[in-house]
Amino acid sequence: MSVSAPPATLPRLLTGMTSSGAMTLDHHFEIHGALPALARRRRDSALALVNELERSGLRGRGGAAFPTAVKVTAVAAARGRAVVVANGCEGEPASHKDRLLLERLPHLVIDGALLVAHAVDAGEVVIAVDEQATRAARATDKALRERSDLSRGAPRVRLVTVPSGYVSGQEAAIVNFLNGGPAKPTGGPTPIFERGVKGRPTLMNNVETLAHVALIARHGAAWFRALGAYGEPGSTLVTLGGAVAQPGVFEIEMGASIASLVDAAGGPTAQLRAFMVGGYAGTWVPADIGYQLPLSPDELREFGASLGAGIVFALPSTACPVAELAFVARWLSGQSAGQCGPCVYGLEAIAAALEQVRVGVGGEGTLAQIRRWAALASGRGACAHPDGVARFITSGTEVFAEELVDHAHRGPCAGCVQRHLLPTPVAPTAQRAT
User: Fold this and answer.
1) CA 268 to chain CA mean position, Å
2) Nearest one of 207, 206, 185, 209 to 196, comparing CA atoms
3) Is the model's pLDDT at 429 over the cut of 50?
4) CA distance 250 to 312
5) Can you tell me the distance from the alpha carbon of 261 to that of 252, in angstroms, rounded to the nearest whole number?
6) R_g (Cα) of the chain, nearest Å
7) Which of 175, 196, 312, 388 has the largest CB neighbor count within 10 A?
8) Beta strands in 222-376 (DSSP E)
């Protein structure tokens, strides 16, 4: 299954990436080598890939961290011609890793998508990209046009742009959009590995996950496991933002500390108050604790945190955390799919209450209401959106308790008038596919 492996060091995914422009197909094969030859019998090569993925311990890099081999096996066992979806929508405003892969290294993603498509006998591959990620879409389209081999026995591969929105990148939302509906998550009794796009078994993977598949197929599970820990092997991409000298996307060894990530970015540019880990569905961690935290799902879980879609944001002490919380809560409430009470009414109420605390209208009783409403919203939504917002807000009320109480009694502080640091792009309302 493997070819001569490069040294088990970093970078891996980002090897050969230039400062601008997408890697060409010729350069891609020069750096990574051709894809391994597939067995004449599809079942044999599919089994070989699944076994290698299982031995590698690769988990999804889109946020759920589900074992990749299990997903592939489930779709391969389902009845009907499968569809593979490469999810590059990246609805998290603080994340840029998937966009970077599609802009600079699209052939690595296409390789991975074709490999899993072969493994599950898919007749179609869809690469889903946020409609506002125009450079990523152009680079991916150009890469597909370079792949003349796609017309000879390979599954049909097409690029689809999905309406922007925080929930548009959810698995169910993409399937709903590809089936002609709005890019909103829908609940259903049948999992997509049985019945997804066009009613067919559907395998959906984050584009970073597929890029890892492309390297594991070339170099093997042992090479992949040479970095990271036994239970959490390999490398991962992390978007680091906030008060650091060189914010951006970094490839790190699984389990590397936040301190080492900040050092790789040139160090902090101010005293740090806290780290946001995992994005807007993630958790706040005080800076003194966060510096020592390993970016490992198991280690983060002990603090009620997760790496999510690979996001760390360094909040400086000069920023007002209450204003940041209120600002993002308002934006998140506006990103609701509008399908259930906890999302439509619960998130709106939480956002309004946080703004009252920020301006000093709501007292400590309002803070207690926020915590109570967040607990009520969690676990009751039609999708995971209320859960993520509740986690983000609840951890914020714990980490920034002192600042929240101060605002409740005294109103806005000097930091409230500063420009907001946490990104909240304006995205158009989800539309129906045509």
Assistant:
1) 24
2) 185
3) no
4) 11
5) 8
6) 22
7) 312
8) 235-242, 248-253, 272-277, 283-286, 311-316
Angle ∠(37,157,34) on CA atoms, nearest 5: 25
Which sign, positive or negative, has the C-alpha torsion 182, 185, 186, 192?
A: positive
Interval 91-131: pLDDT, tens: 899 999 999 999 999 999 999 999 999 999 999 999 999 99
Between vectors from CA 386 to CA 380 and to CA 388, what angle results, nearest 5°?
120
> What phi-psi label fits residue 236: left (phi over 0), alpha (psi between -120 and 50 degrees) or beta?
beta
> Which CATH code of 3.40.50.720, 3.30.450.40, 1.10.10.10, 3.10.20.600 fits the domain covering 235-316?
3.10.20.600
Residue 273, φ and ψ in degrees, nearest 5: -95, -40
The Cα-based distances of 41 to 51, 84, 135 in angstroms read: 16, 20, 38
Q: How far is CA 232 from CA 57, 205, 279, 292, in A?
A: 7, 18, 20, 18
| pLDDT tens track for 217-270 | 999 999 999 999 888 999 999 999 999 999 999 999 999 999 999 999 999 999
Residue at token pair 């589900």: 66
Please state, in angstroms and rounded to a whole number, the distance separating the CA atoms of residues 357 and 370: 10
Mean pLDDT of the chain: 91
Residue 423 burial (CB count, 10 A): 15
Q: What angle do CA 169, 173, 179 make, to 5 degrees?
A: 125
CATH 3.10.20.600 positions along the chain are: 235-316
Alpha helices in 251-311 (DSSP H): 258-264, 287-290, 297-301
Supply 223's token pair: 């090479």
Helix (H) or strand (E) holding 123: strand 122-130
**Distance (Å, whole) CA 48 – CA 235:** 22
Do 209 and 112 meet the contact criterion of CB atoms below 8 Å apart? yes
